Amino acid sequence: MSIDVHHVTKRFGDFVALDDVTVSLPTGQLTALLGPSGGGKSTLLRIIAGLDTADSGTISIEGTDATRLPAQKRNVGFVFQHYAVFKHMTVAKNVAFGLEIRRRPKAEVVARVDELLKLVHLSQFAHRLPSQLSGGQRQRMALARALAVEPSVLLLDEPFGALDAKVRKELREWLRRLHDEVNVTTVFVTHDQEEALEVADEIVVINEGRVEQVGTPDQLYDEPANDFVMSFLGDVTSLGGSSLRPHDIEISTSPVLAGGVEGEVSRLLRIGFEVRANVLTIDGEEVTVVLTRAHARAIGVEEGSTVWLTPAVGAAVVPRMKAVV
Amino acid sequence: MTSALLGPAADFAGEASTGRPPRRRRRQGPRNTLTPGAGLGLGIAMIWFSLLVLIPLVAIIVTAGEGGWSGYFDVLASDQTWAAVQLTVTQSLLVTAVNVVVGTIIAWVLVRDRFWGKSVLNVIIDVPFALPTIVAGLVLLSLYGPQSPLGLEWANTERAVMLALAFVTLPFIVRTVQPVLEELDADVEEAAASLGATRATIVRRIILPSLAPAIAAGAALSFARAISEYGSLVLLSGNLPFRTEVVSVRVLSFIENGNTQSAAALASVMLAVALVVIVGLDIVQRRVANRG
Amino acid sequence: MVEVSTPVRWLLRAVAIGYVFFLVAWPVSLVAVRTFEDGTSTFLHIFSDEQTVAALQLTVMVALWAVIINLVFGVTISILLVRYQFPGKRVLSALIDLPLSVSPVVVGLALLLVYSGRTGWIGPSIEEAGWQVIYDSPGMIMATCFVALPLVIREVVPVLTEIGDDQEQAARSLGASARQTFLRITLPSIKWAVIYGVVLSLARSLGEFGAVKIVSGNVTGRTQTATLIVEARYQNFEQGTAYAVAFLLAFISIACLIVVAFLRPSHES
């Protein structure tokens, strides 16, 4: 395992940012730390990088204990949400910074900077100042700067959080391709579940300072460990005391399936090709069901009609622990 | 070290709590985030600051206190000193009032008006900050003194005191109001206009209230500077007892007569005014910061 | 944005320009006129007057020391105030501004009470160790340091706050030591603020009068600075010399101002 986090706890005053977190992040993979804002994921990333220190617990990177190592000695690449570009240096100087600190020979620095700028498609901007670049370009430059020192791990803190939606989407795909090319162990923090599902090999869901679940995007989506993971990764409704996804509910106008729950359609809403039905069951439960428009028409559901609901075969179902919004 | 760190997790809790404090602050809190190097820097800086500023200022208060309340009272009750205090406070208040009006107008002109030579005006505003005070006195003497091209003979009068104070305090309100006026949201004024407010109403109800904290801060600084002024008055006011002698000149003559205790008593009063101004400013700034 | 009607605009403009013209511009320009009334001889004469030259040299020496000390102290305190949390920080931050509102006469008295060789708190022991503070250059440097103390800090603190510590953290994650981070990242980012602070401190230091007058003893040819010479010569009815030295001081301080005014806009954003 590339990064091992062992029983890490971190408090800011009374606020517990990380509560006894233990997690291992695999070598060579692209891992996402996913969770709501303020859940502790950025703090964990900063502790791995050595920018913050844990109150207790240990961190090891590539098998060596890094708990007490200062950030300078950890050999990690860190990419900040707001780029943290060195404003007074050109793009090339920014990328060269880590190499110059390590006193590499000049020719090597020039060659390496050249190579990296090509990799991030910024060769033609080498001698510009960061203020002349767009946000997406700055973030690519920051990425090249972090990669220049050949870090054992690359850490990205909400790398696309400050960019607009379109650039965000482009960079997301680009990061995936870059990772396949460079193959460095990469960890990125995000609060956007779509971003995590699309890009990551593995996702660590963090909430209120605790790890909720670790797994591949499919595992998380199909076998969520609990209510929280399920609701964070997509829409959730409840049926018969269990949480499940609205499109995982079979709806029929007659009690054909065993164990169907009877209810009345209180509201029917068409959104594009989908139909969203709110059903009030005889147990007094409000259930949301999503079905295609063709299916809705075929079985003839309307507002006020009586229907029977059953969980679809193979649906991801978790016991309902608390009210889910 | 390394082997110790590879021990059971329970040990780490103990290690970390006695270990180095965190290097960076991420959230506000009354914590100590000094690294050993920064702590050393703070220590040296504080020793210097104490030797230069704190201990000497404490010496004034202690020396002033040596005579007890009666010593204080005797100093202030002397006719000459009381006249100096009255003159200084009256003239400082007058000058501050002038600054509130004229300083705000100048700031307005610098921000909202456009004319040839505005940038020159902008630089001239700072001249009183940069000019040595003794030179300021001489400068004013050349226009308002004995050989005045205007035929004004204001040297050695109360007017000279006011003139000198107005000169040295000119930049305060201009420079505190100017940035606030620049930042003022044009939207708000336009919104007020769209709601039917006249120009005068907008100025009175929208602009002036937003400038009020800045004007107050500038006025406080300007008053504090005025009551402590010395250099520009030396040549201009003639330092005539009961007529043009200000508090700082009184302090100086106490020092020159070797009467350090009276000097310290009067100086401690000036110091108290300076402290009140500083604390007041701090409070105003915090209020404004919280509001916005 | 409120558009003022034309007559009001002209009125406000006239008040602003008129006030500044009669209070500052005209009087200041008259010093130049007085100095060069009889050609350049009066002005050049000050450079052949032994006492004046000694005073100018002393002024420059004292000002340079004060600026260097305030530069180091100011940058250190600024970084501590912006980048670290420690008990008493808020009090320190308020106290730092105190020298701006303390009368120069009070500053002089305060230093006298502590460092006077005869009656001061610690002055006699320092004198026994072979140092004289009051009535000598160390005291004059301290007085000058005191009055110009906050100028560097007031320039640097807002810039440090504005740039944040992102760049410094990035440098650390790239392997830069604390020293390398300061020299290669922090210092270049606050460079212009430091330069403004130094120029303003220099102007203030060259022109200090009241505090220096008290701690220097105003000994002609030994502890008399340029500003003290202006006073002495004017009261001695040598107005020519007084105006010439005043002109020189005014010229330097206004030059400092103009340097700052022209540097500032091109490097801010």
Tell me what the structure shows.
The complex is a heterotrimer of chains A (325), B (292) and C (269). Chain A has nine helices and 18 strands. In chain A, the strands form four sheets. A six-stranded mixed sheet of chain A has the order 6-7-8-3-9-10, with helices on both faces. In chain A, strands 13-17-14-15-16 form a five-stranded antiparallel sheet. In chain A, strands 2-1-4-5 form a four-stranded antiparallel sheet, with helices on one face. Chain A starts with a strand and ends in a 6-residue tail after the last strand. Chain A is α+β, with helices and mostly antiparallel strands. Chain B is an all-alpha fold and 292 residues long. Chain B has a single domain (69-290), classed as MetI-like fold (Orthogonal Bundle). Chain B has helices at residues 2-5, 9-18, 36-66, 68-77, 79-112, 118-124, 127-130, 133-144, 158-183, 186-194, 199-228, 231-236, 247-256, 260-291. The longest helix of chain B has 34 residues, at 79-112. Chain C is mainly α and 269 residues long. The radius of gyration of chain C is 22 Å and the shape is globular. The chains are: A alpha+beta (325), B mainly alpha (292), C mainly alpha (269). Chains in contact: A-B, A-C, B-C. At the B-C interface, helix 3, helix 5, helix 6, helix 7 and helix 8 of B face helix 1, helix 3, helix 4, helix 5 and helix 6 of C.
